[in-house]
């Protein structure tokens, strides 16, 4: 190794260049001897690693240059490193819609996480008995409110583990447990209501007052007076029309399960208080609920 | 190799995989199918199987929350005169009649 290390690559490059040039001449003649091509792969060097190094396979002049791993420019530059202009500090401002639906994954737009005492500040879950008096629409919406609350809890849990916050995990678990209780009660209520409907339908088929295959009203009270049959008796006609108006007024109601019907006194849930004698609104309501 | 009893006990603490059990075990991802495989390797989506989530309208104005205040104890319903309590079909039918036989 007589040549110093700085000169060695230069020699190798020169040899490589001449070899490439001679190779080009030979390839124009379409004669490629195997031995010379094998030799041309590696520039001559007495150092084993350099001798076995493969040459660049393409003419890419930017090969090995990277702005990511700070390779630096390949050639010596005229200006010092400190004189190189800095890249602009460009940070695009992200437009955020304050009314976006994804904000529902957080409790607040300013405070993305609840404090543990705020987290623990919640009530108990709904009981089945309380949900029995809710309409389908209310239960449906309550279910989705629970789903959103679950999402918020899951987001908080994820965020807390990401920020490696140790506090608040138990409070979150308790909160989630109450939400799960409510959801379980909703499912219980709806299942029970469905089975109840099936049983009541069977019961109604045996009921003489109920005609389920009727086109109009399936329910005809036993003390119902048809106004067409009793035209001669005006008081009875009025009574019959009153009943019919009640039926019509009930038909206009959107939620027959929640809103108490006209025969019911206001403020008392009809489910807990089914009066046996339907067509006598004067009868005192039993205070059951 | 047949693991010993003690090894098996330790082994069962791991989640069950398809390699742990005999042929035919389908573990799945608890997601259910959305269609069927064809014999050519494709997949036909059955739109009746694809989940549809119906979000009710009016969630913004909805007042109820998943929680009830702890100051109010859980209410107990009174179902006097009904043998099965809230599960008695007579209750349902009477209420239906009380609401003029709608629905």
How would the global form of chain A be characterised?
elongated
Order of helices and strands of chain A: HHHHEHHHH
Give start-end ranges of low-pLDDT stretches of chain B: none
> What percent of residues of chain B are in strands?
5-15%
* Number of DSSP E strands of chain A: 1
Task: Tell me which protein chains meet in the greatest interface and how many residues each side has.
Answer: A-B, 57 and 37 residues
The separation of the N and C termini of chain B measures 66 Å
Taken as a percent bin, the fraction of beta residues of chain A is under 5%
Largest sheet of chain B: 2 strands, antiparallel
What Rg of chain A, in angstroms, do the CA atoms define?
Answer: 43 Å
Major pleated sheet of chain A: none
Intertermini distance of chain A: 106 Å
Mean pLDDT of chain A: 72
Physical arrangement of strands within the biggest beta sheet of chain B: 1-2
The H/E string of chain B reads HEEEH
- The coarse overall form of chain B would be extended
Write the layout of secondary structure elements.
The complex is a heterodimer of chains A (289) and B (103).
Chain A: H1 8-28, H2 34-41, H3 48-52, H4 116-119, E1 124-125, H5 128-131, H6 136-162, H7 169-206, H8 234-251
Chain B: H1 5-11, E1 35-37, E2 43-45, E3 67-68, H2 89-98
Antiparallel strand pairs in B: 1-2
């Amino acid at each position: 190794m007589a040549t110093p290390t700085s000169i060695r690559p230069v020699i190798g490059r020169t040899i490589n260049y001449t070899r490439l040039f001679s190779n080009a001449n030979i390839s124009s003649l379409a004669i490629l001897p195997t031995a010379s091509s094998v030799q041309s792969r590696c520039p001559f060097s007495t150092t084993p690693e350099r001798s076995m190094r493969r040459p660049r396979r393409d003419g890419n002049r930017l090969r090995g240059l990277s702005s990511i791993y700070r390779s630096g420019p390949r050639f010596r530059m005229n200006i010092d490193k400190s004189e190189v202009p800095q890249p602009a500090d460009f940070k695009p401002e992200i437009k955020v819609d304050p009314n976006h639906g994804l904000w529902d994954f957080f409790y607040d737009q300013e405070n993305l996480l609840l404090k543990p005492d705020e987290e623990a500040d919640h009530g108990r879950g709904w009981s089945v008995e309380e949900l029995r008096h809710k309409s389908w629409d209310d239960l449906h919406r309550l279910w989705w409110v629970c789903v959103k609350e679950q999402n918020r809890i899951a987001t908080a849990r994820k965020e807390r583990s990401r920020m490696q916050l140790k506090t608040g995990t138990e409070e979150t678990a308790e909160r989630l447990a109450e939400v799960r209780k409510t959801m379980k009660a909703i499912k219980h209520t709806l299942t029970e209501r469905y089975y109840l409907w099936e049983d009541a339908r069977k019961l109604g088929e045996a009921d003489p007052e109920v005609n389920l295959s009727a086109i109009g009203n399936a329910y005809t009270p036993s003390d119902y007076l048809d106004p067409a049959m009793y035209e001669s008796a005006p008081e009875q006609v009025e009574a019959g029309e009153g009943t019919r108006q009640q039926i019509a007024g009930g038909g206009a109601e959107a939620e027959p399960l929640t809103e108490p019907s006209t025969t019911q006194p206001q403020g008392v849930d009809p489910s807990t208080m089914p009066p046996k004698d339907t067509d006598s609104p004067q009868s005192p309501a039993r205070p059951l609920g | 190799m047949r693991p010993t009893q003690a090894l098996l006990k330790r082994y069962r603490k791991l989640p069950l995989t398809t390699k742990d059990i005999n042929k035919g075990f389908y573990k799945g991802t608890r997601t259910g199918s959305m269609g069927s495989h064809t014999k050519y390797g494709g997949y036909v989506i059955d739109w009746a199987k694809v989940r549809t989530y119906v979000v009710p309208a009016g969630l913004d104005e909805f007042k109820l929350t998943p929680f009830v205040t702890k100051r109010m104890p859980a209410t107990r319903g009174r179902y006097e005169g009904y043998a099965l309590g809230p599960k008695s079909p007579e209750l349902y039918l009477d209420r239906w009649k009380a609401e003029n036989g709608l629905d």
